[in-house]
Specification:
Length: 328
Amino acid sequence: MKRKIALVTGGYTGESVISLKSAAVVEQTIDRELYEVYKILIYPGDWHYLTDSGEKIPVDLNDFSIQIGDEKITFDGIFNILHGSPGEDGKLAGYFDMIGIPYTTCDQLTSAITMNKGYTKAIVDDIEELYIAKSIQLFENSPKSLDKVNTELTLPLFIKPNNGGSSIGMSKVKSWNELPEALEKAFVEDTQVLVEEFVSGREFSIGCFKGNGETTVLPATEIVSSKEFFDYEAKYVAGVTNEITPGRMNEEEIERVNRIIPKIYEKLNCKGAVRIDYFLQNETGKFYFIEINTVPGQTETSLISQQVRAVGMEVRDFYTQLIEEMFT
């Protein structure tokens, strides 16, 4: 008998658009000989399944079931492709834990911690061969915060919403008079903002996942952007960024990255597929951790999909491994 899988998408943030695009690809690609797939859309106060005829079937939140005619559909597991809140920040994970349904992504604690860039960096800071740019975590947009940044950090700077995704609200600051506007932009997106010194280097993004009981590091993708940094436009507008998979690293760099990435995955107690962004500093070649994405995009051109294909694996089989791993 086929397992019933709920494909969870939508969301409460601006990333919902990307979630829907990812879900469309997963829905088309997933192995239908093994799984019955039901796409569940989650919006504030509106969790539902949309039938082929356009009928909106509400989700019973007592057990995350749906009623189609006389049949009550319950799910064996959740394929979580909901970027941002509540799918990536631990809220959904906590809910599924309480009602006893397994899911393909990290648990509640890991999801909540890794959504916070500053807290994540504090946890991985002691990993051997891993470096972190000097930074300050701000909790209010005030003259005192401006003074703190001015006193403790050196230009240029990156300003990031601490819990945000898809580079929304992110800025690069080259002069002190640009800082107030950049902070205001970031604080619109979040109550916490991370300000960090710029690291000059080649940027990479690499997938890592657990399947068949083993942790696999995929080939890294090198990000060569015509923009100054890998912002929302660079990520999602065609032609702005050149993505090279596998990225251009020498043998020593590949070996070193492949040592560091599983340590990050293990240290943060990750599950399923994650994507880790990093720099190799221009002057030294040092590995500088940027951030981790615990619900990486799954569009046709997404970095994870490119990397899976680069090792000769079908994306369909990759999804099967993620699904089966949650039942182990």
